[in-house]
Amino acid sequence: MRSPADIRTEIEARLKKYLSRDNTGIRHELLSFFVKMKTTTIPEIYEKISESFEISYHSVASMVGIIASRIGVLHVKRDPEGPNAVYEIKDAYVGMVTHLLKCA
After folding, report:
1. Residue 64 near residue 87 (C-beta atoms within 8 A)
2. 7-33 as b/e, with b when 16 or more CB fall inside 10 Å?
3. For residue range 12-53, what is the model confidence (pLDDT) as tens digits?
4. What 3-state DSSP class applies to 44?
5. Are residues 36 and 45 in contact, defined by beta-carbon separation less than 8 angstroms?
6. d(Cα 73, Cα 88) in Å, to the nearest integer?
7. CA separation for the pair 90, 85 (Å, rounded)
8. Rounded to an integer, what distance in angstroms lies between the CA atom of residue 21 and that of residue 7?
9. Residues 66, 21: Cα–Cα separation, whole Å
10. Mean pLDDT throughout 84-93?
11. Contact call for residues 85 and 61 (beta carbons, < 8 A)
């Protein structure tokens, strides 16, 4: 069984690798949006990101899905009354993400 420190180290490595492949700055912008807003939906993210970048709605949804499922820094809440899932950055990783965004 992995310790919490091992999990945190693994997530940090995944984030570094994810950000290292960011040629356009979209990934940095997406993660910084989560740090600022804490809780949001894909339509809100798309609206904000599409102001600065030419990107499709599905690409934004895909990036959010990768950050939530593969990297593991987002928590997904299903809203039974609304059509959109609500994504929230986990409190334990806000500092890590902020630090990596400044370093990268």
Report:
1. yes
2. eeeebbebbeebbeeeeeebbebbbeb
3. 999 999 999 988 999 999 999 999 988 899 999 999 999 999
4. helix
5. no
6. 9
7. 15
8. 22
9. 14
10. 91
11. no
| Percent over 70 (pLDDT), the chain | 99
Q: What's the pTM?
A: 0.85
Helices marked H in the chain: 4-20, 26-37, 42-52, 57-66, 91-103
Return the structure tokens found at 75: 């928590």
Average pLDDT, the chain: 90
DSSP alpha helices (H): ranges in 38-90?
42-52, 57-66
**28's tokens:** 């940095």
> Residue 16 corresponds to which tokens in the numbers above?
């570094």
